[in-house]
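Reading a protein record of the kind used here takes only a little practice. These numbers are not coordinates but entries in a learned vocabulary of local backbone shapes. Here is one such record, which you should read through line by line.
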Amino acid sequence: MQPERTEPGEGGGVAVSERREPPRWRRRISTTLALIRANPTGRLALKVVIGVLGAIVVSVGIVLIPLPGPGWLIVIAGLGIWAVEFHWAKRLLGFTRRHVQGWAAWVKGQSLGVRFVIGSVGIVFVGAVALLSIRYSLGIDVIAQVLRYLATN
């Protein structure tokens, strides 16, 4: 967005111009959803479909949280699906987005050494979760297997 300058006698500040028009696909989806919501049966069916689809995606994400993979991203995607129809999910998604963006901005403002430490701790944490998940869900002790392999070769 390009700021729009005001005349010196009109307050002397910088006014933000109007928002850009959303992409065509987003307008089409909004129009389709509005048509569905115009009918009471369509509104109920949309709530049920969005509720069930969001629940499936969130459930899969929750199952994947302790396993290696993008569990939290899938949970947030399910929350985004719910946000199409449920106000509470939209508020929760906004809250999550603000906090993730705040965390990312804080990390970007840190020195390279601090970012390296944060990244290293994150990698160690994800690795520990992955190893524990494999050990307790599949019954395979990866560390013992690696140590046994190194001892025999």
Remarks:
- The mean pLDDT is 83.
- Helices lie at 24-37, 40-64, 71-83, 87-108, 112-138, 142-152.
